[in-house]
Design goal:
Number of helices: 14
CATH architecture of the largest domain: Alpha/alpha barrel
Mean pLDDT: 94
Number of strands: 21
Strand order of the largest sheet: 4-5-6-7-10-11
Strand content: 15-25%
């Protein structure tokens, strides 16, 4: 089975650029050829222009169109003339004519720089374009055949690790595996650390939550790389145990003070009746660290790694109760929407901080996961306090249940937030809800007026006035929240319904044309502003496909 060829069916150079693991160079389709950009932290593609056009012409000066793309090369051709583009190394592109055709004589390479400068070079044997850190391009001759072979070998090795799944899921699984490989970048500040970023288009960093979901998918083909994602996410705890929101090439993002001054004003706790708006806002992500660690260890057990990471996870969990219980009622809150992962959810339309049922559920689940991991890897440590805290947190979580509304409700700055959102389904993850409460959530999942839509679970119920099928976290379907609800259904005693939802998720990704950031719940297609080739969507498709293929 040629998995690289299966993935190549989706490499359109529009939603999926041509790139290489560890490379910051991206190649996209252009009217007469391709264009080249770099991938940089917190910078748009428009700010990272390298070549505005790169064209291969035949002896008559006619541009050769892109005729097909594989992970290891882009092929240009027309009327017998043919050339290919590949990588010579992560910072260097290589172009050269295909062998065996007289029509290749007279081909030329033409490219235009962002400053308007134009260069032309005969494409005799091979040309290499080296992209410097300042995005300037230098040209030199090079052995194109060896570059093709080396790039092909890199992708052959990567696809050699791709999980083999059910026939109807294999093509998309191959593409999703390509996404994970394509999204690998090096973080020079961490030595040779490899981070699988959410996307090389606009998301060049290791976000804590993304790292957990990405590791859960990567574990099926490359457990070592999966562990590396968790290691990076856990590497820079603050003195109080809080884990940063993002690890990136320039440092970390752990508070509003790690952002440019122009962004800080927007991140103060304006409107909060509890928190001090003059202090830095801690920025993190929801506590799923132990959940991710347990899943990664289930595929490739590594007791030494587990014992190294557990103290950091414990410290992070303790921080939620010591540092983010902002009203001191025993239930931690989100100090800022960024820390929830669901930045634009209507549960944050009210004052901050926000006590939310998803956070309560994650904290219950994490304390239990920690207790189980300690029993396995640190048998001399008493896990009782974690189970006791989980039980206490669940009792506080149940206070968010509204019998009148039949759902869990968030509270912002002490005010009830009535929006009917997917966060209200997350208490299923505890697996220990009272029967009537769990049944009500199961009914909500199936209700076609709320969450049981044709293409899956919207992030805001379709009957809610805040529902928008296109607006981020206010209606579109996200793979990660849908997967967590499926896991909650299984934990709560409905494994068959969980499997149905998982089948629904993979069908959505296939129907939508790839692992996009989020999907329109009415059409099942990519939402207009969603990022394509998105890391956690790809990783979780792989995880679901493996599970559904058993």
């Amino acid at each position: 089975m040629n998995l690289a060829a299966l993935a190549g069916k989706h490499l359109d150079l529009v939603s999926a650029p041509f790139t290489l693991p560890r490379s910051r160079v991206l190649v996209f389709r252009a009217p007469d050829g391709v264009r080249v950009h770099t991938s940089e932290y917190e910078k748009r593609l428009s700010e990272c222009r390298v070549l505005d056009s790169l064209t291969v012409t035949d002896a008559e000066g006619q541009a050769l169109p892109v005729v097909d793309v594989l992970p290891g090369r882009v092929r240009f051709g027309a009327s017998g003339a043919e050339a290919t583009l590949t990588f010579a190394d992560p910072s260097t592109l290589s172009l050269g004519p295909s062998t065996g055709s007289a029509a290749n004589a007279g081909m030329r390479l033409r490219f235009e720089r962002p400053d308007g400068g134009v260069e032309e070079h005969p494409l005799v044997d091979g040309i290499r374009l080296h992209v410097a850190a300042d995005r300037r391009v230098s040209v030199e001759p090079g052995d194109h055949a060896s570059a093709l072979a080396a790039t092909g070998a890199i992708w052959d090795d990567w696809f050699g690790k791709c999980p083999i799944v059910r026939d109807d899921l294999q093509e998309m699984a191959a593409f999703c595996w390509w996404v994970l490989g394509a999204n690998i970048v090096e973080l020079p500040s961490l030595g040779d650390a490899r981070a699988i970023v959410p996307s090389k288009i606009g998301y060049v960093g290791l976000w804590q939550w993304d790292a957990y979901f990405i590791a859960v998918g990567a574990r099926h083909g490359d457990p070592e790389l999966a562990r590396e994602q968790l290691s990076i996410a856990f590497r820079f705890p603050r003195p109080d145990g809080q884990l940063p929101d993002v690890v990136h090439e320039l440092g970390v993002l752990a508070t509003s003070d790690d952002l440019p001054e122009s962004d800080r004003v927007n991140l103060r706790r304006a409107g909060s009746q509890i928190a001090d708006p003059s202090t830095p806002v801690p920025l993190t992500k929801p506590p799923l660290a132990a959940w991710a660690l347990r899943k990664v260890l289930a595929v490739g057990d590594d007791p030494a790694f587990a014992r190294e990471q557990l103290p950091r996870i414990v410290a992070s969990q303790d921080w939620w109760f010591a540092g983010s219980d902002l009203d001191h009622d025993g239930m931690p809150e989100y100090g800022h929407p960024y820390s929830s992962g669901l930045d634009d959810s209507p549960i944050f339309d009210g004052p901050l901080p926000t006590a939310s049922p998803d956070l309560g559920a994650y904290l219950v689940r994490q304390d239990r996961e920690i207790a189980d991991l300690l029993e396995r890897y640190e048998p001399d440590v008493d896990p009782a306090r974690f189970r006791e805290r989980a039980a206490a947190t669940q009792q506080l979580l149940l206070k968010m249940w509204s019998p009148e509304h039949g759902r869990f409700l968030a509270h912002g700055g002490g005010e009830v937030q009535f929006s009917d959102t997917v966060v209200g389904l997350m208490p299923l993850l505890t697996g220990t809800l009272p029967g009537a409460v769990a049944d009500a959530l199961r009914h909500a999942v199936d209700d076609p007026e709320r969450f049981g839509l044709e293409w899956g679970l919207p992030t805001v119920a379709a009957s809610d006035p805040d529902f928008s099928p296109e607006r981020m976290w206010r209606g579109p379907i996200w793979v990660n929240t849908s997967m967590l609800v499926a896991e909650g259904l299984e934990a709560s005693g409905w494994p068959e319904r969980a499997r149905e939802l998982r089948e629904h998720i993979v069908a959505l990704v296939i129907h939508g044309g790839g692992p996009h950031e989020y999907f329109n719940p009415r059409t099942g297609l990519k939402a207009d502003r969603a990022t394509t080739a998105f890391g956690w969507s790809a990783a979780l498709f792989i995880d679901l496909a493996v599970g559904l293929s058993v």
